[in-house]
Amino acid sequence: MRDVVAPSHRHVDYLRLSVTDRCNFRCVYCMPEQGVPFKPHEQILSYEDMVFFVGAVSGLGIGKVRLTGGEPLVRKNLPYLVRRVAALPGIEDVSLTTNGTLLPRFAAELADAGLSRVNLSLDSLDPERYQRLTRGGRLEQALAGIEAAFEHGLTPVKVNAVMLPELMQELDAFVELTRERPLHVRFIEWMEVGGCGPREEGERLSRTELLAALSERGALVPVASPGGFGPARYFRLEGHAGTLGVISSVSDHFCGDCNRLRLTADARLKSCLFSDEETDVSAAIRARDREGLLALVNRVLASKTYSRPRAGAAGRGMSQIGG
Ligand code: SAM
Ligand code: SF4
Question: Count of domains in the chain?
Answer without folding.
Answer: 1
